[in-house]
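name: query_chain
kind: protein
chains: 1
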Amino acid sequence: MILVPITYKGGVYRLDEIVDYIEDLGGYIVQRHNIANEVVLQVLMPQDDIERFKEFSHPLAGEVQTSPLVGTEIAVIIPSLEIHHLPHSACDVAEYLRSYGSKSNILGMARGFGKRISQINDEERDLINEHDVAIYLLGNFATCIEKKFPKLRRGVMVPIILTGGTSREQLEKQTDPPVEGYVGGIGRFMHRTQTEVDIHRLDLLIDEVMRVISEKRKRLSHDPPSASPARIQDMIKQEIPEIEHVYSPSPITVQLTGLRVKLDYERYAQRIRDLVIDGEITVGDVANVLPSRMRNYILIRIRPFSETNIVV
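structure:
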């Protein structure tokens, strides 16, 4: 069963019927946002049932749209947290990704500055690799990007999208080996992205992120995860009620091949491994439950079918 990411926007009137219908169709609510009297649901739903869901929600004035970034977590990488490398563009990129359904995290490197001394440490590398995609927001000078980027990408295994103030063609020319995506024209600028030109830059970046995510989803379809991340999210919510007392944003973050659970690893990792998915199959049978590099959180990495011979 192919689950497609969508976003539902509607009012609170008869919302319980919408939620029940999503569950009846075999869908999963990844995130829910209440904005005044409007509710935004980010959903993973069977592809064949989307039109049926649109027909059901139409009398309730609900809006359904495809959102390819729902169910992803993306790292936005900047060389440092100093004013030279953290202009408005970094925050605007992270926020724009969230508006399209993704969970984004900004990572400012400890020693990413300086053409001669720039570097990435083991903790930063491991944290980046916990995400689905990494977006590198670098500066305006081609020579600076050419000398620093090979050091900053060292050991990063997730797909990389490189951005900078130079053109896309220049970024492609100076990057060897190549990366999965390029967006030019996004460098350092000390103003908010409010003009039409600035917003067009963000739209180009979103298009590139969607393309890279879609290609990754296609590769995963050839050897899919042994269980749906969204299904494991629902199980954790039902079986570990302590997750309801986590007040940080997105207590459970769904990724393409796993989840980040914002509970203490030492206390809750074994409880998550022992959760029964189906019959005698537990989460520990189909996934690696690991300590995350992000605080003391739990990282769940679902193993592919080729390793477990299980699909639940």
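note: Residues 19 and 29 are 8 Å apart (CA to CA).
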